[in-house]
Amino acid sequence: MKQSVLITSILITGLVLGVRQLGWLEFLELVCFDHMVRLVGDAGPDPRLLVVTISEADIKQQKKWPLSDQTLSEVLIKLQQAQPRAIGLDLYRNLPQPPGHELFMQQLQASNVITITNLGDTNAEGVSPIPGLSPEHIGFNDFVIDPDGVVRRNWIHAYQGEKQYYSFSLRLSLKYLSKQGILVKINPNVRLGNTIFPPLHPNSGGYHNIDDAGTQIMISYRSPEQVARRVSLTQVLRGEFEPEWVKDKVVLIGTTASSVKDLFFTPYNAGKSANPGMPGVLLHAQLVSQLLGATLDKQPIFWFWPEWTEYLWVWTWALIGGVMVWRIRHPLILGVAGVISLWGLSIICFGIFTQAGWIPIIPSMLAFVATGGSFLAYKLRHNLLHDALTSLPNRDLFLKQLEWAIADTKLRKNSRFALLFLNIDRFKLINESLGHQIGDQLLINATQRLKACLGRRGTIARVGGDEFAILLENITDSSEVNCIADQIHKEMTLPFHNNGQEIFTSISIGIAFNQSELDYESVTLLRDAHTAMYRAKDQGKGRYEVFATNMHTQIFKRFQLEIDLRRAIDKQEFYLHYQPIVSLATDTIIGFEALVRWQHPQHGFVSPGEFIPVAEETGLIIPLGKWILQSACQQLSIWQAQFFSDPPLIMSINLSGHQLAQPDLVEYIEQILKLTGINGQSLKLEITETVAMNNVEAAISILLRLRTLNLQLSIDDFGTGYSSLSYLHRFPVNTLKVDRSFVSRMEDTNEDQAIVETVILLSHALGMDVVAEGVETAEQKAKLQLLGCEYGQGYFFSKPLDSKSATALLNRQFENK
Predict the structure, then answer these.
(1) Of the candidates 558, 519, 514, 518, the residue with the CA atom closest to the CA atom of residue 535
(2) Model pTM?
(3) 151-166: b or e for each residue (b if 16 or more CB lie within 10 Å)?
């Protein structure tokens, strides 16, 4: 059920974020933004600012609009006498308004006067900059009108081509801050002193795909109206103001007359048709106040989470909605908890908003409600028909789906489907040696890979512990099923990663096809695919087999083999053969590899390739391995007493993955060494490359413990597994054995010879010696000698021998010395 909550919450989160990505939630998010702005409260007037308003009464007094250059010149002169730090003329004046143009231009040349232009819109009348002024006296109109007509953000810096522009409010703020020695730096974000203004991105906050050129920030409104002290144009002309209102202040001059239509909607009056809006000059005063407040007063600037954090936030609330429905069963308590949660979400978002953080609230609410509602319906049905760990259909649901497929083939002639039965190879070993948590995660990861392989081509179910079933309907040819099986094999042989650990496995697949002329039952068809899967395991695992009617007999034989194997261990029907390991430099035997053989009382010789996999799968390899260790060491003890050599003869014995995972392995080997009286240096234990890489850290740990017994260690079949060079140097091994497949092809391909040469060079670089397996010709031996290989093993020297024949071979060698 936990998995179901997780999956449902992820799906709903994806849906909500998809809707948000389409921009369908932007309007609601902006409405919430406006509402929170109104709830934050009024910060009062900014004492660093003064606004000179041009009202309807002022225009009537002057009897002219636009105002003459003479009038504005007089205003500037009056204000300059009071020594302001900056004067911002929030009026478009690209054309002369006589009389007094020369005087007006003279006043505009003052270092503390900033004029305004409308950047980029040069076709509209009255928006280009005043001719003759340097760029330091010009700032562009910096607020942005959202699609709903509300001003919530502003530009403070922009580029056109390679040329950069400062906003009107930034120019005024810089004039004010120059006395403190604060300059602006843009690299790439705008920085005033120690204050960095992070820019808006296309999807910041509740926005969707806004223009993010230059640097935009959200406006932190100081006040709905009284952002600064105001005096009228007429009052300034008459000198009816106190000089301290102006001294060291930023003075903005602009119109508040409604007839000029320089009015804009803000979050304070959004959606209120009766409210005419905020005059542009007061809006610019808000922007200047924000820049000065952030720089000097360390007032917070609007910040936003990265998109991945917002996604996590939305998913968290979707998860809360799902968990709440999962945990709470009583409808009334569930309803109350839901309302409290939504209120809690609103309070959290508003609390963060008071600290200038805008995080998504509408997507979170939608995800919370949608996930809770969806999961409420989903969980009622899911438990009955799905596996709790993987959320795949369970056996009951899959059999029902199989019945529908069978019924469909009866209605439609020539309709074919295939049933695949899958089993993860060596899952029991992984589960027992690495723990059930790793095993469960492996099942989950395997499920994900199977889903990725299938896409929409089939139905997958978990029908047992490590068993899966796949239904492929509407197939046109059996080759289509074979391709899917091959693809699954390819994916499942890739390593699984868990906390930095690599786990290697494979999958065995049984395939059963429907036959329309036969009256199938779903259980029977599933059994046939299961039988084919066991056939695949018997043939070496990591493969697929198609069901044939004789397979039931073969499966019975396999189970009979397991029974016989248990009896053989009890009755000691096994014996050992020994294959010599020869020094290529001296052609002398330096030791043997012990190989187990089985003489069945009724069936005769049974190949190790037939019974060893069964012993591995059933765990019988543990008692069998102990017998091999003890018998081989006893034989070595006899040979060492009979044939003296320096160094003494050695015995190589293979260890399986099951044996390596036994907690008493070291103690048992130590006991055998004491019992047989041989030195640990004479015993070489071999593990395959694949076993070593299954659990690297565990393998290194147990090998280090074995080395405390002064044993020699070897990696067998090197080059056929998945060794990582980053791990190889950490293995405390003495020897690498080159796999016979590379040695046998040395004379045929340069690639295989290069592989053998590389393994030899690598071994020597790591301080190891090399044994080449499968040496069958004098040419192979000569090449190996030339490449620096120390030892060889194969039919060129001797086939595996019983103890009597091996003793005779040693006799001949020592007699010739």
Answers:
(1) 558
(2) 0.50
(3) bbbbbbbbeeeeeebb
